[in-house]
Amino acid sequence: MVENARVLCHCLNIVVFCTSCTEDNPGRRFQCCQNREGGCSFFRWVDDPLCPRARAIIPGLLRRLNVLENERDTFLRENVKLEKRMKWLKALLLGVLLGLSIWWLV
Fold it and tell me: Start and end of every GRF-type domain (predicted)?
């Protein structure tokens, strides 16, 4: 199916592409009415059904991906904090060195 083709739902609106996050259809794309609440009941799968092995494996992979993304976000936040602290310590060290150099000149 061509994704760029304009498909209209029963409301005569252009349908939207969505991705399923269910255990039975993880990552499977579908089309539906853009007015989910109060719209029509238009629904059509874009992707073919997954084989049983893919249905069994993909949810675990998605959970692992979520864990790794959360860890990455934690490390990125910690890195920002450490960079700010390092900048502050460099400024402090510069101040100490300038103070010592002035003291030696006196």
Answer: 9-49
58-to-27, 39, 72, 106 alpha-carbon distances in Å: 8, 31, 21, 71
The pTM of this model reads 0.58
**How open is the CA angle 68-87-89, to the nearest 5 degrees?**
115
Q: Where are the beta strands (DSSP E) in the chain?
A: 16-19, 29-32, 43-45
pLDDT over 90 at 48, yes or no: yes
Residues in CB range of 6: below 8 A, 6 or more apart = 14
pLDDT tens-digit map of 10-21 = 988 899 999 998
